[in-house]
Structure formats: structure tokens, C-alpha cells
Amino acid sequence: MYLNKLSDGDFISIEANKTSNLTVMSVESINYVGLRALLGTWTADESFCYNFNSHTDFSISSQVGKVCLPPNGNTNNYTYLMNPQSKQWVMLVAGQHGSYVGDVSIIGKKNVEIDFYDAQGTVLRHLSLKKVSE
Question: Quick count: other Cβ atoms within 10 Å of Cβ 11?
Fold first, then answer.
């Protein structure tokens, strides 16, 4: 079920065992996935840009008008891992300002929503991201 959620160009890290005749692999667990659709620069209804540089790191930089400023000393860098769930993707984020868990919903090629939670399950922040044209 989780593998069917992936698209062309997505990345998956798994733990698996192969049979002795090397024809079948049994997937034991999914470590994390990388969604190609998430890569790139995104903006929200605030003055920040979210640049997903790879399947495991992103940065937040300032936005002036509709322009994302280049990264500088004020950029916040984060590492993240994505894991599949039945309805959305779960994002584990770590950075200099703490660690977070969030639900990621890919609404379309240019729209993503992320809800970040605290340990009690209260929504700390809701982001409606729009892809910056490339």
C-alpha cells in the first residue's frame, strides 16, 4: 500500500531481506521516503520561503514581495525524514530551534499543506505552501 503512494522520481530507503536464489526481496521496514514533488522552493502566506534542497534537508529564508532572497547568515537549516501513512505523509523535522512532527498532504503539483504538532497533538502551525515557478 505504501509503495503505491510513491511516484516516478521518488526515493525510498528500506530494510529488506533477499531470498537465497536472489529473485525475491522481502521488505521488513521503510526507513524514509523522499518525494520528488516536494523538492524546490515554496512560499506561504507569510514572508518566508521554504527551499527543499534534497530528500533530507530544507532551509527557510526571507521573502520580499514575491521574491525569495538568497540564503544568507539568517537562513534556518533543517533536516527531515518523511514516512508514509495511509492518508498523508509524516514529516520528522530537526533544526537549531527544536524538533517537530508534521503531517504533509500533497494537494497538487503546486500546493502542499503541512501541520506541525506538539507532543500533546496540538497543531502548532499550519502551512499552506505554493510552489515557486522555476
Answer: 14
Please measure the distance between the N-terminal and C-terminal CA atoms of the chain and give it in whole angstroms. 32
Domain locations along the chain: 3-131
**Cβ-Cβ contacts under 8 Å for 70 (sequence gap 6 or more):** 61
Nearest to 114 by CA among 14, 46, 29, 30: 46
In 3D space, the residue among 15, 42, 44, 45 whose CA is nearest the CA of residue 27 turns out to be 15
Q: What is the pLDDT of residues 37-52, one digit of tens each?
A: 999 999 987 888 999 9
CA distance 85 to 2: 7
3-131 adopts what CATH topology? Lipocalin (2.40.128)
Sort residue 40 into left (φ over 0), alpha (ψ -120 to 50) or beta: left
